Model the fold of this input.
Amino acid sequence: MTVTALKPKTPPAAPKPAGQVLALPAAPRRAPARASALLRLLTENVVPPAAVLLVLLAVWQVAFSGGTSGLPTPAAVWAESAELILDPFFVYGSQDIGLGWRVLTSLERVAYGFGLAAVAGVLTGAAIGQSVWLMRGLDPIFQVLRTVPPLAWLPISLAAFMDSRPSAIFVIFITAIWPIIINTAAGVRAIPQDYRNVAAVLRLNQVEFFWKIMVPAAAPYIFSGLRIGVGLSWLAIVAAEMLTGGVGIGFFIWDAWNSSRLTDIIVALVYIGLTGFVLDRLVGWLGRAVSRGTAS
Done:
């Protein structure tokens, strides 16, 4: 008779605990980060010029507060020309309109003149940059013509067009085109030879070479010329309108001078400066967008 050892009974397994739910880390909130970035942007770019402007206005106010001063103070400018600042688009008559409408009238002329100069200047500069002989023959002439002051072209344009409006547009065109031509030609000549070799291997025609190789490679030079050109255009239209008349911002300054409205002239100068600043930044932004950040 054998004795069989009995196996001890295995105790029932304890019930497994239910799956534990782990709390996921909360997603970082973007609102505080955006607010911090906005605050940093204002601190770095808005506060310093605003502080300098307030100091300059205070110095101006103190320096010209005397009774014998010939220039109005900032407080006098606000008191006498507040309507020009607060309501730039009023219309009381054909010649009695706000500075906003006058700036838009001048900008329309600049758009025509500068647009023509941009197209003609880029195409001419591209052709000259491709040819050594054209560069040698035309560059000295362009260097001489670009030094002619804008208003020196006005009598010739009035004699040629017999009208003030096309004459003003021609003055803008002839003033803006030279830096565009010269910079575009320099940019085309600076295209690396490797790019030209690639174009030859791919057998690009002249139109394809212009759009795919020349424009991207020479964009920093082209837009440098365009920024100079748009600044000169804005300077030229203000000066030309003083002599040709009309309803532009230049004629407004001349009319205000003849009427001894110095406060209106000061407000118009602020409009001119801000408009020129916006034009410069607009062309610069367009240049960075086209050249993907290589144009300054």
Summary: The CA atoms of residues 7 and 208 lie 91 Å apart. DSSP finds eleven helices and no strands in the chain. The radius of gyration is 33 Å.
